Amino acid sequence: MVDDDPGLLKLLSLRLQANGYQVETATGGRQALGRISARPPQLVITDLRMQDMDGMDLFDAIQKQAPALPVIMLTAHGSIPDAVRATRKGMFSYLTKPFDARELLQGIQEALQHAPRETALDSGMEEAWRENIIASSPAMVNLLEKTYRVAQTDVSVLIQSPSGTGKELLARALHQASPRRAAPFLPVNCAAIPENLLESELFGHRRGAFTGATSNRKGLFESADGGTLFLDEIGDMPLEFQAKLLRVLEDGEVRPVGSSSAFPVDVRVISATHADLEQAIEEGRFREDLYYRLNVVMLEIPPLSRRREDIPLLARKFLQQAGKRGCKARRFSPEALRVLMLAPWPGNVRQLLNVVEQAAALAPTAVISDVLIQEALRHRQERIAPLAEAQQEFERQYLVDLMQATGGNVTRAARLARRNRTEFYRLLHRHELEPELFRRG
Known about the structure:
- With 441 residues, the protein is α/β, with parallel strands linked by helices.
- The protein has 4 domains: 6-112, 3-Layer(aba) Sandwich (Rossmann fold); 120-299, Rossmann fold; 304-377, Helicase, Ruva Protein, domain 3 (Orthogonal Bundle); 387-438.
- The chain has 21 helices and 14 strands.
- The protein has a 5-stranded parallel beta sheet. A 3-stranded parallel beta sheet has the order 1-2-3, with helices on both faces. Strands 6-7 form a two-stranded antiparallel sheet.
- Helix 15 (311-323) crosses helix 17, helix 16 packs parallel to helix 18 and helix 17 packs across helix 18 (370-377).
């Protein structure tokens, strides 16, 4: 609950706790964002008019940080138009002051039915649908929760994320969590297939359709019938072929090259790209109608630099895999882990895998040193910019990343930031970040 009126905040908290809810409070939007970063809740209830950050700005920030998190707005009668606009942007609902307690409790009950739940990640299905995805960061937990819920539907999904983040891995996980899991999952890289062969590859062809077509051939749409077709690098698909793909998605029918008739197919399409498709639409390189057909739900995998607490987990997993291929190394030195945690990672998880494999292959002993990691990174560790020179938002995210990476250990975080504990506490206080909320377990 977020409100800059301590009296109302206390009253509502007591009332909700009396009804069996766990409640955490914040007296402003900035403090709320810090708490959400450290310990994602299942619901946010916020006042609209607040001094440091109003409810609309807080809602916009939550949408960027945790888009699946439902938000209920409390507003006075004069601000109803603002609340209506917020619901159109995705806010769950709003209540006008003064409100009835039963109305609030009913709204909470309805909102929690749509809230992120840990059970989706901790259920017996966990190994079956996300066994290869290693994650503990709030950003990834939120993404996996959203993925699990979308998997239960049959809508088209667009995964838009930087290269090397694991788009195909997430697509496979979505397929495994869906009712289609027993049917095929077929990936195809649209950028790797020549334009003149793409139609035949996806839709199939009949004997004699073109030179070299000596027999009938099933396309990937037909082969994936009942299952999932993953179209990677969809942004590189030729413009002329996009119209043909759109027709298949709209009609649910495929006509092989050289055939005069079409037949129905039941395929779920997951597409992925690292490109900005909206910019491609503006430049005339991608069809807007196809974009909206593919992008019923968008999933965005955060870059590795935004999920640093996952780096040790991933690095140890990759090292374990390297050990199965004969590498001597079995663990990282503390200094090596520090270098891994602070590297910029422009190549994301793919780059981390490469760095770990190279260091493991060259390690003469069971321990990988920081020198080996530095050599594998192929650059000198960049100096962390002084916080005093950083922009306000950068400074806050910098602190959040450090606290998540160290599990709320202020001493370690201060050492990494090259600041003394007193100054570091002052920085945390400035951004209303509470160390205990980042501590694991």
